[in-house]
Amino acid sequence: MKRVQLILTFIVVTVMNLHAQQSNNRPVVLSNHQAIYVTDLKKAAAFYADIIGLEQVDEPFKIGKHAWFKTGPKTTLHIILGADKPREYFKNNHMCFTVASLDDFIRKLNQHKVPYEDVSGKQGSITTRVDGVKQIWLRDPDNYWIEINNDPSMFE
């Protein structure tokens, strides 16, 4: 009888430990992708590749209405053709990308004549957050807001 109790106790403890490991070490929800709806797929794709610097990855549909870009180890940005016109968005509704050198990124924006601003809207200015991270804001060809910052914790 004691042996059966010992085996049952071992099984219960093992199952509880496995459950605790799964819930403590792995989030229940993971980000997979973000999607934006655009008026000109070629123009948007060129912007995200050439200006933002994202790597384009294969997309499964192959119908000429999608472009996918790698945004992290297992996340992508899906650009989808079909919007009838660019819209106006609030700056707080944005995507954010981190770069190793904000100065280098700003030089690229200036070379391509892409305007940027600080969080308050001052053109050509940089915001420094309370934690020391520097950030700028720009819009893509469909007016989606993008924050670019130099958060060093992203490279740890």
Automatic annotation (TrEMBL):
Assigned keywords, A-Z: Signal
The UniProt record lists the keyword Signal: yes
Signal peptide coordinates: 1-20
Domain VOC, residue spans: 30-151
Pfam families: Glyoxalase
Keyword Signal among record annotations: yes
InterPro entries reported for this sequence: Glyas_Bleomycin-R_OHBP_Dase (IPR029068), Glyas_Fos-R_dOase_dom (IPR004360), GlyoxalaseI/FosfomycinResist (IPR050383), VOC_core (IPR037523)
Protein name per the record: VOC family protein
Record lineage: Bacteria, Pseudomonadati, Bacteroidota, Chitinophagia, Chitinophagales
